[in-house]
């Protein structure tokens, strides 16, 4: 199953996505320029293009992916439809207190304080080849914690896939040698 797009379709699709991502100054606090993806999600052609471009980015490893792990909550928006298109399962990685069965937990540092991610202990089989999906790579703390959870479960991280990367925040550096694909960089 091939997912590669023609380069002209890819360039046009990326331009469409950029046009549908709103820049919102001073949200959620002063000095932050928030990249709002909801206009891209609301437009059917743009949403389809975003999914096509995600698949295009991982075309060389798509046949190896056995499970997609989506990071709460916007990783669910792209992770589930990508899993459906690839014919693989989807596992949500959640904030604490959202999963009802026994969990693995990974704590990670924030600018001020810390947070955690959890996954059910039995949702990711040992040896599974996993693609981690989220909407945005910023500082890399959340993605790094998700990778650590997957690896603690005994699975292999094939790569991490994002719609947007905030390049100035150097989030890639927290992901070490892992493969990182981002459709749009700011």
Short description:
The chain has 186 residues and is α/β, with parallel strands linked by helices. It contains five helices and nine strands; from the N terminus they run αββααβαββββαββ.
- The second-level CATH architecture is 3-Layer(aba) Sandwich
The CATH class, by name, is Alpha Beta
Main sheet, how many strands, which sense, barrel? 5 strands, parallel
Query: What sequence of helices (H) and strands (E) makes up the elements?
Result: HEEHHEHEEEEHEE
Task: Count every helix, treating DSSP H or I runs of 4 or more residues as helices.
Answer: 5
Whole-angstrom Rg: 16 Å
Count of β-strands: 9
Folded structure, characterized:
- The structure is a single chain.
- The protein has helices at residues 7-20, 38-42, 44-57, 74-86, 141-152, and strands at residues 22-25, 33-36, 67-71, 89-93, 103-110, 113-120, 129-137, 156-165, 180-185.
- The protein is an alpha/beta fold and 186 residues long.
- It has one domain (7-185): Rossmann fold (3-Layer(aba) Sandwich), CATH 3.40.50.
- A five-stranded parallel sheet has the order 4-3-7-8-9, sandwiched between helices. A two-stranded antiparallel sheet has the order 1-2. A two-stranded antiparallel sheet has the order 5-6.
- Helix 5 (141-152) links the parallel strand 7 and strand 8.
- The longest helix is centred in the first third of the chain and has 14 residues, at 7-20.
- It is globular, with a radius of gyration of 16 Å.
- The mean pLDDT is 94.
